[in-house]
UniProtKB/TrEMBL annotation:
It is found in: Apical cell membrane; Cytoplasm, Perinuclear region; Golgi apparatus membrane; Membrane raft. The keyword Ribosomal protein does not apply. It comes from the Eukaryota. This is Epithelial membrane protein 2. PANTHER family: EPITHELIAL MEMBRANE PROTEIN 2, EPITHELIAL MEMBRANE PROTEIN-RELATED. The chain crosses the membrane at residues 7-29, 67-87, 99-119, 139-161. Belongs to the PMP-22/EMP/MP20 family. GO terms for cellular component: apical plasma membrane; Golgi membrane; membrane raft; nucleus; perinuclear region of cytoplasm. Interacts with PTK2; regulates PTK2 activation and localization. Interacts with ITGB3; regulates the levels of the heterodimer ITGA5-ITGB3 integrin surface expression. Interacts with P2RX7 (via C-terminus). Interacts with ITGB1; the interaction may be direct or indirect and ITGB1 has a heterodimer form.
Length: 165
């Protein structure tokens, strides 16, 4: 049982790391001379890189704010889920453990799903509005989807683990 708990903690910490990287790093949409995330656009020239915040001037600012908010909320919920897991591990009796942690992880999973789904459905409009040529999804966007899978699996593991000795 100790090995299972250690695996779950490592899996949870990995989920938190993936969420932090996906939320902070500037690689949701990348091209040969630019990169775009949910916070700013960076255009690379031969000598410098010019980064500008995605402001309220864009037509899709509310959608971008929704993506920002749900990614931040997901990261906060995932961190809180780990603290809740540690608390429940030592304070609650068997059968009551990990239900709250599982629910918190499921909410975190839902927030990542909302953010990544909104971005994937509206990315064409974002890039046309910002007048960016071509490009493809970057590793931060892929990490967001991987974090979705990890948080979902983690919530399922918590709900299964709640009755184990």
């Amino acid at each position: 049982m100790l090995a299972v708990l250690a695996f779950i903690v490592i899996f949870h910490i990995t989920s938190i790391a993936l969420l932090f990287i996906a939320t902070i790093d500037n690689a949701w949409w990348v091209g040969t001379d630019f990169s775009l995330d949910i916070w700013r656009t960076c255009v690379n020239t031969t000598t410098t890189s010019v980064c500008t915040d995605i402001g309220s001037k864009t037509n899709y600012f509310q959608a971008i704010q929704t993506i920002q908010a749900t990614m931040i909320l997901s990261t906060i919920l995932c961190c809180f889920g780990l603290v809740c897991f540690a608390f429940q591990l030592f304070r609650l009796k068997q059968g009551e453990r990990f239900v709250l942690s599982g629910i918190i992880q499921m909410l975190s999973c839902l927030c990542v799903l909302i953010a990544a789904a909104i971005y994937s459905s509206m990315h064409e409009s974002f890039h046309n509005d910002l007048k960016l040529p071509g490009g493809s999804f970057g590793y931060s966007f892929i990490l967001a989807w991987i974090a979705f899978a990890f948080t979902f699996l983690n919530s399922i593991m918590y709900l299964i683990l709640r009755k184990r000795k």
